[in-house]
From TrEMBL:
The chain crosses the membrane at residues 12-30, 65-82, 94-112, 133-155. SUPFAM superfamilies: Mechanosensitive channel protein MscS (YggB), C-terminal domain (SSF82689), Mechanosensitive channel protein MscS (YggB), transmembrane region (SSF82861), Sm-like ribonucleoproteins (SSF50182). This is Mechanosensitive ion channel family protein. The lineage of its organism: Bacteria, Bacillati, Bacillota, Bacilli, Bacillales. It is found in: Cell membrane. One of its GO terms (biological process) is transmembrane transport.
Length: 356
């Protein structure tokens, strides 16, 4: 039935290579269609289930699967050309190696911070999507995937990894001595992740840095200062330092001192204190009524010190400034209405006129 086909091949041997090339081209064109069909089926199956875990897991293998379709096209094209057995041994090893790489690639994608695995982990363990536990654990798992992938590839190509492992044991002490700081930083990172003194996006302050936490890696923690500088602090230093997490404030303090002139009428000063106190107690932006303190506290060189002390609901910087500004303006209005002037730190000059 195919006598004409074999006759052509005998007449033009180069047709073998054309057919092999066309085979690769067909697989190359079908790679998106095949993967799209597979994932449409997977998406329908996962929708009927109670969990999207399977769908998310397989979607991590979408790009590796596309490449795998092309690899199989090349493999079938080589099989069609019927190479020598020793060549096929190498080809089969290459195929198995690429399969290992594609599986490693898929698991590497799945262990990313945006995968369903870490979404569930963050929800159950930490309850916070901005926790440093998720990216830190993701980096550890991705590192393990890469190490395991290269180990299996080495075994596939008959490399003796036992000698390598034994060498690690013999050189372990020297490595530990040479990498003390690295090991200390690694365990410092684990302490920061497990104790959770802060999370990504928190405003923290230590003895060495103050700013917004951006990331934590195996070695260091990156903090963006308010001057837009990026400070990288070793995890061991951060773990052993006192950390103030200002983002965990439940309320924010306002502490002000206003100096009033000594020639201000006493009754007017009392009215100012009472009106400011009433203003603060009636405001929904102020918390802890018992913490409101409005007093003439000290007699200083240039005037009477009026203490203004209270806490606001607003803890973010901009919102806190707006509340503070509002009450500062109200205090100025009250002082003006009561004819009480603010003392300026400069000496008053009094001229004595002699009647004669």
């Amino acid at each position: 039935m195919f006598d004409w086909y074999y006759a052509w091949l005998e007449a033009w041997p180069w047709l073998h290579y054309v057919i092999a090339a066309m085979t690769v081209l067909i697989f190359l064109m079908l790679r998106k269609l095949v993967t799209r069909f597979i994932f449409v089926v997977i998406k329908k199956i996962s929708k009927h289930g109670k969990s999207l875990f399977l769908g998310n897991f397989l979607y991590a293998f979408e790009k590796p699967m596309r490449m795998l379709v092309v690899v199989f096209g090349v493999y079938f094209a080589i099989l069609y050309l019927s190479p020598q057995p020793d060549i096929m041994v190498v080809v089969n090893r290459l195929l198995r190696t690429l399969l290992i790489v594609f599986f490693g690639w898929g698991f590497f994608n799945f262990s990313g911070t945006s995968s369903d695995l870490f979404t569930r982990l963050g929800r159950k363990v930490d309850g916070d999507r901005d926790s440093m536990l998720i990216p830190f654990t993701s980096k550890i798992l991705r590192g393990l995937v890469i190490v395991l992938m290269f180990t299996v590839i080495a075994m596939e190509w008959d490399y003796d990894i036992n000698g390598f492992i034994a060498g690690l044991g013999l050189g372990g002490l020297a490595f530990a001595l040479a990498a003390q700081d690295t090991i200390a930083n690694f365990f410092g990172g684990i302490i920061l992740v497990t104790e959770k003194p802060f999370k990504r996006g928190d405003w923290i302050e230590t003895t060495t840095v103050e700013g917004i936490v951006e990331d934590i890696s195996f070695r260091s923690t990156k903090v963006r200062t308010f001057a837009e500088g990026l400070v990288t602090t070793p995890n061991s230093t951060m773990a052993n330092d006192a950390i103030t997490n200002w983002s965990e404030m439940r309320k924010r303090q306002v502490f002000s001192s206003i100096y009033l002139k000594y020639n201000s009428p006493v009754e007017s000063v009392r009215n100012v204190l009472e009106r400011v106190d009433k203003e603060l107690r009636e405001s929904p932006d102020v918390v802890d009524q018992e913490e409101i303190e409005i007093y003439v506290r000290e007699f200083e060189e240039y005037g009477m010190e009026m203490l203004v002390y209270y806490f606001t609901n607003a803890t973010p910087w901009t919102e806190w400034l707006k509340v503070k500004e509002y009450f500062n303006m109200r205090i100025l209005e009250i002082l003006k209405e009561e004819n009480v002037e603010i003392a300026i730190p400069m000496p008053d000059l009094y001229k004595h006129r002699d009647p004669s």
